[in-house]
Amino acid sequence: MDIDNIVKETEAGMQDAIAHLEKAFLQIRAGRANPAMLGSVMVDYYGNPTPLSQVANISAPDAMTLNVQPWESSMIQPIEKGILEANLGFNPSNNGNSVIINVPPLTEERRISLAKLAKNELETAKISIRNWRKDANNTIKKSELSEDLQKGLEADVQKLTDKYIEISDKTFEKKEAEIMKI
Questions:
Q1: Which of 136, 134, 119 is nearest to 4 (CA)?
Q2: How far is the CA of 55 from the CAs of 7, 73, 79, 91, 180, in angstroms?
Q3: CA 65, 21, 175 angle in degrees (round to 5)?
Q4: 0.70 cut: is pTM over it?
């Protein structure tokens, strides 16, 4: 068993948890329109549920508008339906060539609920980070290393855990400030 791999795999897993958190935060809307807001939208593409980004180009021409330009004009209706079914609070309209979404300004109540949603994503990331620590510590305990080496490795894993928990907290604080900014 390669001891260096335990720490490397643990750190890679923790980095993945942070990457997942950042991706989740992209889909939580803050003040301005962002194409990532539509990242969870699935569209019926000839009977198959397909991510919106695979059937159309999504852009934000200004801070309060999203423009969805389908690659096939026959996809306008399924795109509108997919956006409504995603329950994002958007009301799409079309001009015959593309789907336009006017992003309404956030109410204080909605900002608070989005901040809670972000907090839930933060907790999920922290649980993932702690699970990586637990797995690494279990592997270390099962190893046939001396007690001193085990303690040293466990300390290294704990340092990694503290580092990635801090990164996740800072990422959340930044997102929360972005959400609550009027």
A1: 136
A2: 41, 10, 9, 19, 33
A3: 55
A4: yes
